[in-house]
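Page 47, continued from p. 46.
Same chain as before, 138 aa.
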Amino acid sequence: MTHALLYPVFVQVALTLVLALLTAGARFLSVSGGKVKIGDIVLGQRAWPPRIQQLGNSLNNQWESPTLFYAVIAFALITAAPTAVLLPLAWAWVALRIVHAGIHITSNTLQIRFMSFITGFAVLVAMWVVLALHVMGG
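Result:
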């Protein structure tokens, strides 16, 4: 059952790959269509059209708090932490990341996006608390 903790990781990786492909495709079409010149974006992202910045921002977001998710899962596997507690939390976190990314690349309504982020962050903190208690023998 411990390996079941890897399934939400696979879904999170898939989300990141989908966002990477969407961003790369949009950027390629923008450059090949002449909307953006390579010289304008070689040193930064500000010259991309807003839609491409929106996709890129969502992709960049997958390198931030998800690193803490990957770490807690790895440590949980190493320490044989309680999967029965961590697995539903991991799935909740991934579901909230999907919701967050969906909002980020569509309406981008900040209030709703923030609520999905902060709820997911609270789930992530709970995962770390569960792991810490397990490691400390509690």
